[in-house]
Every structure is written in C-alpha cells, then in structure tokens.
Specification:
50 residues, mainly alpha
Amino acid sequence: MKKLAPMCAIAFVIFYVANTPADAAGLVQSAVSLLGSIADGISHFVTAVA
C-alpha cells in the first residue's frame, strides 16, 4: 500500500498535465508565486527583527 499511493499520485500528475497543460501550468505558476510571497514575508520579518 505504501508503494501504491506515490505511484498513483505520479500517474495522476502525468494524466493531469497531459490532458490540461494550460491548467497545470497555471497551478505551478500559482504555487511558485505563493512560495515567493512566503519567502518575501519571511525576509521582511527577519529584517524587522534584526
């Protein structure tokens, strides 16, 4: 069971990217933007504390 779940997740990602590449690209862009916003907030916090 532990080996089946990651394989199913990878298969779903491949299926999603193959069927809706524009939506998949938008999802990746949103995720990267979110990570950038989080990193920016952390850097502002560290600068304010120091």
